[in-house]
Design a protein that fits this description.
This protein has 516 residues and is an alpha/beta fold. The protein is built from 13 helices and 21 strands. The chain has helices spanning 2-15, 21-28, 34-38, 43-53, 66-82, 191-204, 218-226, 248-254, 321-343, 365-373, 416-430, 453-457, 486-505, and strands spanning 94-102, 106-111, 114-116, 122-124, 131-135, 138-140, 162-166, 209-213, 231-234, 242-246, 265-267, 271-276, 280-291, 296-306, 311-313, 316-318, 350-357, 382-388, 405-409, 433-435, 463-467. The strands form 4 sheets. Strands 9-1-13-17-14-18-21-19-20 form a 9-stranded mixed beta sheet, sandwiched between helices. Helix 4 (43-53) crosses helix 13 (486-505), helix 5 runs parallel beside helix 9 (321-343) and helix 11 (416-430) crosses helix 13. It binds zinc ion.
Length: 516
């Protein structure tokens, strides 16, 4: 990289040596074909950057850990050295992302004077304030639903009370679900939504503590929230609420016929507990740089990749060369190619935002913070997000043998135009076998929801997610830079560059014709 810039410098000096310096300097900036910039993305430079970025020195880049701090410094320095400005005021490339680790709180809990054991019998699933609480009664609300078609809370005041409900939803005598009127379940018993939907009802009605009896999910939840590794999340305002998922023993100690009854009733069960919060907060960083558009600077094309990985576990470094070192260095090369165009007077018409997000492995946290809490640039003016997560390897499970392929996900979901541009750029410049296997709405892997682009897509911003599929080293310490196929990485990076170039330079902003 440095070598190339040095050569550019020399040629400028040579050109400037004539008698009419200004004129010659202007002439030296003759417009180049876009391929002149695309070809500046090379496997050699990608390799050099990745051997640093995915080296042991970066300690697996775990969110919040020293290795992640080294990673963000490295990215910042790259943009500084290219002369690409920060997207944030004060020339600070870091968007601070406040995070918290929810560690298992210390809880003593008794029902009717009998002691129950934290994690074994119940598990706290939200961050609640320190305190003690006791009540002489518990309000059982059956399925805990409050819907137009059915409510467990009719004429019920649960303010300041302890509320107990169970998993599931009611059925009519014809066997159909009461809410949907068909054999389809609703959000009230769908695993993804039930935990939040039922809690929110009790919370909005002013309950002080909520007990959710869910025997099928208990072991899974206890493992997720009760393990020694704290779950990470964005810092949220603390709730004045306690929320415990409880097992069968505890549920039956409160209400012996809970499995067969869904009748709302006040139970004479005394409960007392003492709660000691063990979560801690810390800062992590997104790294954000921008090349301002020359004609439509208020329209933004975002290119994103996550900067974090899994860190060190059991003494082993998870280098994350493919995940997502490959996407990270691809972005650096794309940025450099655009910057060369800028230096030659051919900068993009729209702005290009280079967004390196943190906390992806912990639940898309950095991108969620950007879209939900602090979009540096208005989402309404964001044209598209091209998200790169794992593009340096091949998928051994892929049936076709052509190794020059790439999975594309999401390209046609919101904008037909985006999909067509992407195809066109590929045909024109790259000739990659674009594979849409995982773009199928019914694909069980649900990759569309599993990387940072989703936080843009949910805001009706068209996205393309570039992905090589998983492999034997996926999320293993063996995801190392020697296993990357650099010729493929080069070609795939170029495709993303050309697509971004077209999105930034075409006359009209792409249209969203399939908004949700
Ligand atoms: Zn990833």
């Amino acid at each position: 990289m440095k070598k190339l810039l040095f050569l550019f410098g020399i040629s400028t000096i040579l050109f400037s040596c004539g008698s009419s310096q200004n004129k010659t300097a202007t002439n030296s900036k003759k417009a180049l074909e876009v391929t002149a910039y695309g070809n500046s993305i090379t496997s050699a430079e990608l390799k050099e950057a990745l051997y640093t970025y995915a080296s042991d020195e970066f300690e697996g880049r775990n969110t919040g850990d020293p290795g992640q701090k080294k990673a963000v410094e490295y990215l910042k320095n790259h943009y500084v050295s290219l002369g690409i400005p920060s997207a944030l005021p004060n020339n600070d490339y870091f968007q601070e992302v406040p995070l918290q680790t929810l560690s298992t709180p210390a809880i003593d809990l008794l029902v009717n004077g009998k002691s129950f054991t934290n994690i074994e019998d119940y598990v706290s699933v939200i961050s609640s304030p320190d305190g003690t609480f006791n009540a002489k009664e518990i309000i059982y609300v059956g399925y805990g639903i409050d819907d137009e078609k059915f409510s467990s809370y009719t004429n019920l005041d649960v303010k300041g009370k302890v509320v107990l409900f169970k998993a599931g939803e009611p059925k009519n005598s014809d066997g159909n679900y009461t809410i949907s009127g068909t054999d389809e379940t609703s959000k009230w018993s769908n695993l993804r939504q039930e935990f939040v939907a039922k809690r929110e009802v009790a919370e909005n009605k002013g309950a002080k503590a909520v007990l959710f009896y869910n025997p099928d999910a208990y072991s899974f939840v206890a493992k997720r929230f009760g393990g020694s590794h704290g779950r990470m999340s964005l810092v949220e305002p603390p709730k004045d609420l306690y929320y415990f998922i409880i097992n069968t023993d505890l549920a039956k100690a409160i209400h012996s016929t809970i499995d067969t009854s869904d009748k709302t009733e006040t139970l004479n069960s005394a409960i007392e507990f003492n709660y000691k919060n063990a979560s801690n907060t810390f800062e992590s960083e997104n790294v954000v740089a921008i090349i301002k558009g020359s004609e439509k600077p208020e329209e933004y094309v975002v290119v994103s990749a996550h900067l974090d990985h899994e860190g060190i576990k059991d003494g082993e470094i998870y280098n994350g060369a493919d995940d997502d070192g490959s996407g990270t260095v691809a972005m650096l090369e794309i940025a450099e190619a655009f910057q060369k165009a800028v230096e030659n007077g051919q900068g993009p018409k729209r702005s290009i935002v280079f967004l390196h997000v943190t906390g992806e492995e912990k639940g898309l946290l950095g991108s969620k913070y950007y879209t939900d809490q602090d979009p540096i640039f208005p989402l309404a003016n964001t044209v598209a997000d091209l998200n790169i997560d794992m593009i340096g390897r091949t998928d051994p499970k892929r049936e076709k043998t052509n190794r020059n392929y790439l999975y594309l996900i999401g390209s046609d979901k919101l904008s037909t135009e985006l999909h067509n541009i992407s195809e066109e750029m590929n045909t024109k410049y790259c000739n990659i076998d674009l594979d849409y296997t995982f773009n199928d709405d019914n694909d069980p892997n649900r990759f569309y929801y599993r990387s940072d682009h989703y936080n843009f897509a949910k805001n009706n911003i068209p996205v393309i997610f570039y992905f090589n599929g998983t492999h034997a080293d996926y999320h293993k310490p063996s995801d190392t830079p020697d296993k990357i196929e650099y010729d493929l990485l080069e070609n795939r990076t170029r495709l993303i560059f050309y697509t971004a170039w077209e999105l930034a330079n075409r006359k009209d902003r792409i249209k969203v014709d399939k908004a949700n």
